[in-house]
Amino acid sequence: MSVVALKKAPPPVKQAPAQVVPLPVAARSGQWLQKSVAWVVSSVLPPLVVLLVLLAIWQIAFSGPTAGLPTPTKVWAESSELILDPFFVYGSQDIGLGWRVLTSLERVAYGFGLAAIAGVLMGAVIGQSALMMRGFDPIFQVLRTVPPLAWLPISLAAFMDSRPSAIFVIFITAIWPIIINTAAGVRAIPQDYRNVAAVLRLNQVEFFWKIMVPSAAPYIFSGLRIGVGLSWLAIVAAEMLTGGVGIGFFIWDAWNSSRLTDIIVALIYIGVTGFVLDRMVGWLGAVISRGTAT
Which GO CC terms are listed, alphabetically (predicted)? Predict the structure, then answer.
């Protein structure tokens, strides 16, 4: 009988543990530079080109001697101080546009903050019932179409002071889209989520924070973005009539003094501030809803 000799298996080769080799500093800086250039080309360059084209058209269109509006070069020549130094203080009414914008933003913070709290709570309650939705929706749709300045005489008669009147105008203007969007978001919560809440026996407060807010966040923040834009519109319009040191009264005072270049600079401040407010609310919504609210 033949015997087959078994060969011993070779011992396993020990492998060195894998090592993570960091990229050289030059390579990492090169990647960062490429991303920065790509972001500038895709996000910054297009609006910058459009802005330059619009400024060129504006300059050419109103360069004639009979033009009614000043050109961009004239705006810079006559009102550059308002652009370069927005926080100067020469007197109680002679202050920079930066301080005026901050004064207006303070009023917006009060009015819009109250509207956000009341609007979300009311929308959450109304959205729970289809009967309440059918009852309140026509009223909300009528009230939301009332212009901000139409509320000003009512608020002045009620509060007899310009400051709370302006805050009330902001509140009453901003609250309707917040209520409507919040109620729509609550109605759109899937029934499965409600069933889970019933199984877990969540109370109303727990249901609001754990189910309602995350699910309805896209709707809620859509209403908040509309509301903050309306708030900024309302305060500028209200300040034109109530006075003070806000940006709205500055525009009205500049018009009475025939300072068109100052008005144009103030409009730029208003537009940029409104853009920043909208982006801030949108960013907050994206953080809370994890990217589902835009």
Answer: plasma membrane
17 occurs within a structural domain: no
pTM: 0.79
Q: Which residues pair with 89 in a beta bridge?
A: 95
Number of structural domains the chain divides into: 1
Compute the residue count for the chain: 294
Return all residues near 159 (Cβ < 8 A) that are at least 6 apart.
165, 168
Residue that the structure tokens 């101080």 belong to? 81
Q: Is residue 10 part of a domain?
A: no
Q: Residue 90's domain spans which residues?
A: 84-291
pLDDT digits (tens, 9 = 90+) for 103-126: 999 999 999 999 999 999 999 889
Q: What is the pLDDT of residue 40?
A: 77
The candidate with the shortest Cα–Cα distance to 228, out of 266, 185, 281, is 281
Residue 44 lies in a domain: no
At residue 128, the pLDDT reads 85
Structural domain includes residue 131: yes
CATH of the domain at 112: 1.10.3720.10
| Residue of 1 and 162 predicted with greater confidence | 162
